[in-house]
Structure formats: C-alpha cells, structure tokens
Design goal:
The structure is a single chain. By secondary structure, the chain is mainly alpha-helical. It has one domain. Helix 4 runs antiparallel to helix 7 and helix 5 packs across helix 6. The model has no long low-confidence stretch (mean pLDDT about 75). It catalyses: a long-chain fatty aldehyde + 2 NADPH + O2 + H(+) = a long-chain alkane + formate + 2 NADP(+) + H2O.
C-alpha cells in the first residue's frame, strides 16, 4: 500500500531530484526487477574502476612504469582481457544473487504493506557503508586466512596467486 492516494501525490511529496528521478524510473518497472539493478551496477563498476589504470599503462607506458610497484612486470593485453573475462564470469553469480532477491522481495512484499519512496539521508548511507565495509573487511580477512590453510590453498586458492604484481583487472581477478 502506497502512503499517497495517487502517484502524482507521491511524486509531489518527494524532496530531492534523485528521489523524483528514481520514482519516475521505478514506477514503470515491476518491483521484483528493481533488485536486479545491483548486478548491472556492480558489473559496470567492476569494468570502469580498473579501466583508467589499464589505459594509462598501455597509452603511456614510460610514465606508468615510474609509478608501478613492480615496474619490470608488464602483462599483455590478452592477459588483462582474460583476467577481466574470468573475474566477471566468476563474479556474476555472486553479484546476481537472483534467487535471494526473489525470495527477499516475496517475503517483504507479503509482510510489509507500506513502501516509502524517500531515499535514505547521506548520513544513513555513510553509516550503512561503514558497517558494511567493516563487516566485509573482517569476513574477507578470516576467509582469506582459511584459504591459506594447506588443503584449501592446494585445492582452491593457489590459482588466485597466479599473478604477483598489482595490475588493473588482476586485482578483481585475484578476488574471484
């Protein structure tokens, strides 16, 4: 149940341009499809964040070499593309979490009858990001330690240590 009598009333109550834009966009889309945006956003970020470093290294190699931790290591473009392809392929099921999204949407829509269109404040977003980063960092540390036990390293984790020099897409490849 929406708090307002009409969608025009709901849109008029929105405070910021971001809320109004999100409302107009999401009003035309089925609710359960909205949860899939995370996958697209994460794939775009996965692609765009390392891209400037890759371009910098290949368009200005002499300049880039001065700033590299291991300047003697220079990987081929084919290797970068393989790392991107493999890490994107490995990450999609994690990013997608389609089954969980459908389950959570079904539960929430069944038990929560009022939906609020207002976006969280900047303070709420920062607090949630801080908690998320702390929890995620803590879990990554302990999972990575577990992956360095003899059995897990030999049977699973050794592949992720294929590259020893930090390079654009290698970072996300190594997380896979």
């Amino acid at each position: 149940m929406i708090l307002y009598a009409t969608t025009a009333d709901a849109e008029a109550a929105l405070v910021t341009w971001a809320e109004a834009t999100w409302f107009r966009y999401s009003a035309a889309m089925p609710d359960h499809w909205l949860s899939f945006h995370n996958t697209l956003i994460l794939l775009v970020i996965h692609t765009l964040i390392p891209l400037p470093l890759l371009l910098f290294e290949y368009l200005a190699p002499a300049v880039a070499q001065r700033y590299k931790v291991q300047p003697q290591v220079r990987l081929s473009l084919t290797t970068f593309i393989r790392c991107y392809r493999d890490s994107a392929h490995d990450s999609l099921p994690i990013m997608g979490h389609w089954a969980l999204s459908f389950l959570l949407y079904t539960l929430c829509s069944r038990y929560i009858s009022v939906w609020d269109f207002l976006l969280p404040s900047a303070g709420e977003i920062l607090a949630q990001l801080l908690v998320y980063l702390l929890v995620e960092d803590y879990l990554n540390y302990w999972i990575h330690r577990l992956l360095h036990t003899k059995w897990a390293y030999n049977n699973i984790h050794h592949v992720l240590h294929e590259f020893t020099a930090p390079e654009g897409f290698i970072a996300t490849y190594s997380l896979g």
